[in-house]
Fold this sequence. Notes:
alpha+beta; Double-stranded beta-helix; four-stranded antiparallel beta sheet; disordered C terminus
Amino acid sequence: MPISTRPLTDSFGVEIQGVDLNADIDEDTFAEIERHWYENGIALFRGQAFTEPAIINFCRRFGELEIHVREEYLDPHYPELLRVSNVVEAGREVGILQDKELGWHHDQSYMKEPAIGSMLCAFTLPNWGGDTSFANLAVAYEALDDQAKARLDGRRVIHSYSYFNGIWSVPTNDTQTNRTPDVSQPMVRTHPITGRKAIYVDPAMVPMIDGDDEEESRELLDELFEWIIKPEFVYRHQWQPGDAILWDNASTMHRRESFDPHSERLMKRTTIRPKPALAVPF
């Protein structure tokens, strides 16, 4: 299956053309897709005619699929897919995160073993809004001078799902809360596949630096939050029907704009765990 690519920005992101996610993708082509994804942080596939089994089968080739803790928003037929939507059926919201703005975050950084990737697929789009922006935090880290890197290396931060839900989502139930306690993660994460370093903080999930007092923690985090969303580190995506974006959770974070609350938006997302002993040559 011959493919071609188009860069999305000068420093990261790639559109991979010539891929049908419903097709049987041969091993050599898949290896090329995987390489482009890890090299670029995000990979865009356009013009897809999605089927849920095809999405699951494609994403499962990158690693085991996580069943999201928010089981009330899972696709009832395909629990590997989380519905991100404002659709209401029989008086019940079927999807998470509805129609409001959603701040910068990593997916499932609050887990002891964080996700390596996610893929979001556009099934139904609203009349306006809902753009998703991605920031490449490997590029942001590499742009720091040596002194700034030294301030971050070796330190740790708290990632908190309860903190995220208190600002951007609805609270978890007791069972879900017990499954997602706050965790300490490295402030600079070494990618488990590529070995590339990336800043691993975001405003929505990280309330504080582990072991620092509140004032010192807030000062450094605010400085970092301003740095990592500089325009040269960000790609903003305007969705089209049939778009799928695969992003690397170890090196990128993302946010969403608000959208028309009077029209429906239905997206379905996988969450990908890292494959054991995976080696990708670079």
